[in-house]
Amino acid sequence: MLAMKRASISVLLALASFLPVASIQAQAAAYAPAIVSDVPSLRGSYAQSGPLGGTITVRNLSRRPVMALRLQIGASQNCDSWTQEVYWDGREELIAPGASHSIDFDAGRSSREIHGRYVQVPPCRTVVLDTVLFRDGSYEGKMWPAAQMTARMLGTDTVRQRIRDLAAPILAGAQPDSVKCDRILAAAAQLPVSSDAQMISALHARFPELSDVEVRRLTYFLNLGMATEKETFLQNFRQNARYRQENLIRMPLAQWWAILYGK
User: Fold this and answer.
1) Which residues pair with 114 in a beta bridge?
2) By three-state DSSP, how is residue 141 classified?
3) What is the pLDDT of residues 52-68, one digit of tens each?
4) pLDDT class for 2, splitting at 50, 70, 90?
5) Dist CA 120 CA 108 (whole Å)
6) Which of 29, 138, 185, 222 would be 195's cystine partner, CB 3.0–4.6 Å?
């Protein structure tokens, strides 16, 4: 009798441990967020590639090249909501007219404290394409996110152009590539990452509906774009210089530069 009770308890414990896992696995297998577009020029679809992750494919239905877009994940839902911005890489547009762009998406798992207990938050079931920026400066969707993304792109583009300008005479010189690398790194490290009045005025002209206070708030995104681009360049270029020292990169510096930083 005692052996039978122990066996029954073992079975119950095994079932208790299995059922939640099976339930979680079933929920994960069925996960597929709805992709909704609030802007007429974009359409999206989702393909699952993992338990709570997959790929969002965004198609540009317009005749204008897309330079940046924003995803709103789980807005107004009882889930772990957030936003994600996607920008062009500085060389090509993000999405050419009629083309598509793939975005890795991971709903993830998170928890929040409710009345002293941590409760698992369900994955968001809706992803909204709510704002898009085009190469000609126009946008569709929400004005404030569009202004933020425009400010960040302006900061990024400003630093990128300054890097090109400082590198041009160095690359045209007759010094060895190792010396050129050192000179470019030293010059780029001195670049400022603070916006000026001209940049702020250009933003206000793009978004005249914004108040002076809102325009001043955009300086944060201007400076963020400048600082991020500068740091990204320095990290990449230091790696390039190190690989050259180790003979892992044998391509002439001018040729390498034209591929990654050429206009």
Assistant:
1) 117
2) strand
3) 678 999 999 999 999 99
4) very low
5) 11
6) 222
- The H helix count followed by the E strand count for the chain is 7, 10
Percent of the chain past pLDDT 90, that is, above it, reads 54
Backbone φ, ψ for residue 100 (5° rounding): -130, 160
Is the separation of the CB atoms in 119 and 190 below 8 Å? no
Closest CA to 167 of 227, 251, 259, 257: 257
Burial call 95-125: b when 16+ CB within 10 Å, e when fewer: beeeeebebebebeeeeeeeeeeeeebbbbe
CB-based contact 107:120 (threshold 8 Å): no
Angstrom distance (rounded) from CA 216 to CA 220:
8
pLDDT band at 11 (very low <50, low <70, confident <90, very high): very low
Q: What is the pLDDT of residue 77?
A: 57
The pLDDT confidence band at residue 207, using thresholds 50, 70 and 90, is: very high
- The tokens describing 84, both together, are 């994600």
Q: Which tokens is 9 given?
A: 């308890």
Helix or strand run (H / E) with residue 28 = helix 2-29
CA distance linking residue 36 with residue 38, whole number of Å: 7
| Contact status, residue 224 vs residue 152, Cβ threshold 8 Å | yes
Write b or e for each residue in 40-69: b if 16 or more Cβ atoms lie within 10 A of its Cβ, otherwise e.
Answer: ebbbbebebeebbebebebbbebebbbbbb
